């Protein structure tokens, strides 16, 4: 017997599935844009951003308490994970884009939360409403912000026009945010002739996944080596060799890609000309060299990663934040300092813990406990379980044939300064023959990645 539309929607869970389909969300809600948002139930949690933080929390809340109504709002129509994506650029065996993507409908249907595919354009904390570009307004009792980062080309290159920034951003993809930028960078590598790939890590400040630019150097060098390209990877850094997992990266670079990777630790990039495919930078001989030497060099591929700032969603919520837009926190918790009904997770926090996917997952679980306690009128101690050992584990691929990786672990604790703090350690693995890298660590890297994708989607 053929089912009609009403029958279909009687099936448990399908209503939630409908909400994940952008066309439906648009069709049913666009007309309501100007209408008053439905009143929140008293147990409504709205999460902005379906990345590592948001996806983890939506699932965790519903798993723990089915009476909580969860709505997850995301502007992208498909998830792409950033971790391990440097392996894709490096041409590691059996890696394809399909490993990194996920459809939002899967967990929304399974765990019974509503997914809204639309961009949040304003937040009214007084009315407790979130306004979206195509799906109207959504009311909340508790709001969770997990919107990630933004690029700050304007701060780094104050003389560049908007057009110039747009041009450089497209021609020299940063690939620190998921999606098109990674695909563009991969295509540029596939199309490159013999020549130089420049990698420019963010010049200063907090940035997403601190080891990522240095892992990228190793992976692109692996690609160049395996493809027989006559080329170099030049890293134009500002950190004088002191960067995340620095010793371990430098050891691997030297052992595996000494003739390919050139690291310059004291530089300042001042210009990029995408037409001429040249990059201009000043190189300083040492920290006392004030003048430096200006160089303009030709590139085949340029991965310019600008200074990071926080997503504008934090400022949109009008909660207190630091100069780069990251949210000020209420002590050791994941509540915002400003509003007891607004939580912040993932890269957007000002806790002194590394901005990583694993950290976002860890923080989401803690915030979930704090939110459930708040809704139930019970007490959640924000320092319970601290210090948390290996709360963050972050792997970096450093070799391709054979596949080898390095790792760092962080213990998170309650710092005297009043926020959470991470302390890192870079261990040498048992199977590393005295080196920081090993094949066993590379296997663990792939297993970890499979685990976090399951955490968010299954
Ligand atoms: C190359 C690379 C390698 C990495 N490697 C690792 C690794 O090995 N291990 C690790 O743990 N981490 C790694 N990371 C870091 C990790 O990806 C991030 O730290 C993590 O994604 C942060 O989670 P988040 O929820 O804060 O932000 P995101 O995952 O970026 O999610 C934010 C979401 O919010 C959405 N959003 C923003 N604004 C709006 C709006 N106005 N309306 C609706 N939606 C909005 C965005 O579209 C996005 O989907 C890596 C990152 C990169 C770039």
- What's the domain count? 2
The kinds of small molecule bound in this structure are: flavin-adenine dinucleotide
Number of helices: 14
Q: What is the 3D shape? A: globular
User: Which blocks of ≥5 consecutive residues have pLDDT under 50?
Assistant: 1-34
CATH architecture of the largest domain: 3-Layer(bba) Sandwich
What CATH calls the topology of the largest domain is FAD/NAD(P)-binding domain
What is the CATH homology-level superfamily of the largest domain? FAD/NAD(P)-binding domain
Q: How large, in whole angstroms, is the Cα Rg?
A: 23 Å
Mean residue pLDDT: 92
**Termini separation:** 32 Å
- Spatial order of the strands forming the largest sheet: 5-2-1-9-19
Q: Estimate what percentage of residues fall within beta strands.
A: 15-25%
Structure report:
It is a single chain. By secondary structure, the chain is of the alpha/beta class. The chain folds into two domains: 5-148 and 311-383, FAD/NAD(P)-binding domain (3-Layer(bba) Sandwich), CATH 3.50.50.60; 155-306, 3-Layer(bba) Sandwich (FAD/NAD(P)-binding domain). The chain contains 14 helices and 22 strands. Strand 6 and strand 7 form a beta hairpin. Helix 10 packs parallel to helix 11 (246-257). The longest helix has 20 residues, at 357-376. The two termini are 32 Å apart. The structure holds flavin-adenine dinucleotide. Flavin-adenine dinucleotide binds at residues 48-54, 73-76, 82-83, 85-86, 119-120, 146-148, 176, 208-209, 212, 311, 313, 346-348, 355-358, 360, 394-395. The site of flavin-adenine dinucleotide (FAD) has 36 residues, from helix 4, strand 2, helix 5, helix 13 and strand 20.
